[in-house]
């Protein structure tokens, strides 16, 4: 293999590694975004409970999303409650 060809192969391999690193980084950001969404939801709930903000302070589209998300969480509450009580029974909590 010529020296010029070796350099070209190294560049290709580096490009593949960079792409894999970029995909890993993208996955890390996606997971972080999902975790932060939960933080923001909890923050909104706290601020609303303390009456620092009201639901009506948000634009209509945001209000609809907040209400929809609260309904989704409420529908999961019996399921998550079921798992929590099982863990409490075996002393995990």
SSE map:
Layout: H1 3-49, H2 60-89
Tell me about this structure.
This protein is mainly α. The protein has 2 domains: 1-51; 54-93. It has 2 helices and no strands.
**Beta-strand proportion:** under 5%
Indicate how many domains the architecture comprises: 2
Main sheet record:
none
Radius of gyration: 24 Å
What is the mean predicted local confidence, pLDDT? 78
Q: Could you spell the SSE succession in H and E letters?
A: HH
Q: How many runs of DSSP E, i.e. beta strands?
A: 0
Number of helices: 2
Describe the global form.
Answer: elongated
Main structural class: mainly alpha
Unreliable stretches, pLDDT < 50, 5 or more residues?
Answer: 85-93
* Residues in helices, as a percent range: over 70%
- Report the span from N to C terminus: 63 Å
Q: What is shown here, in short?
A:
It contains two helices and no strands.
Q: Which tags fit this structure?
A:
93 residues, disordered C terminus, 2 domains, mainly alpha, elongated
